[in-house]
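Worked example 2:
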Amino acid sequence: MQELISVLSKKEIEFLKSKRWVEFSDTLDLEDVLSDYIQLHCLTDNNDLTEEGILCESILNKIGEL
């Protein structure tokens, strides 16, 4: 998880802290939570991503690059 934290922006880290997701020790668990959160909370009526959805997607992309 420390490797992921080192590549995240300050805004992304603050978002994870606000959701208490920074406490995960496994990035796979975090990946599952982020994916679920996007589907449940981050889509507009037009299926566009909200600002939080964009943050989640960015974090997921960085997890994929590790």
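Residues 11 and 36 are 20 Å apart (CA to CA). The chain is about 70% helix and 0% strand.
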